[in-house]
Prior knowledge:
Elements: E1 2-7, H1 14-23, E2 28-30, H2 31-39, H3 46-52, H4 65-74, H5 77-98, E3 105-109, E4 124-129, H6 132-141, H7 147-156, H8 160-166, E5 169-172, H9 176-190
Parallel strand pairs: 1-3, 1-4, 2-3, 4-5
Amino acid sequence: MIRLGLTGSIGMGKTTTAGMFRDRGVPVWDADAVVHALYGPGGAAVPPLVEAFPDIVASDGGVDRSILRAHVAADPAVLDRVSAIVHPLVARDREAFLMGRDDPLVVLDVPLLFEMGLDARVDRVAVVSTDATTQRDRILSRGTMTGAELDAILSRQIPDADKRARADYVIDTSTPATARAMVDRIMAELT
């Protein structure tokens, strides 16, 4: 089984590209989806996070991510505390996904693949990428964060050029057609 790490900075098109692999029958493990479930009502991360930050409980019993983001913005050390709680839970889920599989190819969709050192745990790395203007427009058009919040996130991520330099494959997500063509090429090479 080949483990393909799929990564890229925020707004580069990882989710869409992961869907292209999924549409071709490749099992995809999505770190963001796992974190979302861990933060949701009944999620395994909720009790330890609420113990650390009692004011982050949302009305549905999950984590209010906007309050948590405000804590991180006010004190960057909070991110380390959150990571210490959440990352082991994410790692357990990833290992459970991989356990006993015999698929020829699986995709591990991990936004912080390089930042977390997980590139050492995969066989190949594909980085999704587009120009900075398209990236920024995609993110800000969602209406979920400000330009300052985006800049803070980008400051914690390895720059796109560095990710591309470390990748086995670069998937240009400027258009769906260019992304699909590269996904097809990767599939042809790895399966």
